[in-house]
Model the fold of this input.
Amino acid sequence: NRMAISPHHLSQVINEHHGKSFNQYINEYRIREAQSLLSKPENREEHIIQIAYQVGFNNKSTFNQAFKKVMGLTPSQYRKEVFAESLNNP
Done:
């Protein structure tokens, strides 16, 4: 299925409605998905690079930078905090 909108127009719409570029929007979407995956107990032992790949990043450095920019923490710091909180609040 193709959208009946040009990539340029789609980028403009995202910029106007969300105040960010298409790439920023996509990266934030990917980071929210990574956040969800990192929070799941069944993914606790999953390598962070595997989660990065699952959400569309192709290297750990870029993923870590993007994640920290959005979340204020690295993915590993985020994961530690999530599971520390779950231990303190069963």
Observations:
- The mean pLDDT is 87.
